[in-house]
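In the current project phase, the collection of sequences with tokenised folds has grown. A representative record is quoted in full directly below:
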Amino acid sequence: MNIFRILGDVSHLLAMIILLVKIWRSKSCAGISGKSQVLFAIVFTSRYLDLFTNFISIYNTIMKFVFLICAYCTVYLIYWKFRKTFDNENDSFRLEFLLIPVTGLSFLENHSFTPLEILWTFSIYLESVAILPQLFMISKTGEAETITTHYLFFLGLYRALYLANWIWRYQTENYYDQIAVVSGVVQTIFYCDFFYLYITKVLKGKKLSLPVPI
């Protein structure tokens, strides 16, 4: 395991903690897309079905548990604990536009045609587009809270660090996973406009707004 992988995992975990703390402290999920969080929960569930059958390391097992717990806690806070603050009107991205093509692609392009492998591939493809409902919601409302932009920044940084991880592994181990790399590049591209606005606006104390992502 290299430093880029570790920093990527830390950035990912930090993003999830920032979101959970934001919702809990404010007792509100305003500005947060519940649909994106449901997609992320599906991503982790379908990816980590091998949790009890394929042991890689203690670190790997702990991180899987932590990501699953954080994902479902977030969904719980949005749709149950603080559901009265949920902005259902603006969280209007149609998930079938993502789930149907991703499901089809996971059957057509995978490493092996087995249930766990197809589900793993599905999770990789879905993760690359899971943030779109959140970006779409921001574009509809016209702005995002600063703490929400910090969450998005660390989520995007996680993907960028994973790209560096794949480059490092290719150079040092001659390892290359086309599905993971291509999906990661696609996901990072979705964050490009956000990174620019984060640096030019949020870091200067201004509110962030995004153009329509699709």
Q: What stands out?
A: The mean pLDDT is 90. Helices lie at 3-26, 34-47, 58-81, 96-108, 115-129, 132-141, 146-173, 178-200. The chain has eight helices and no strands.
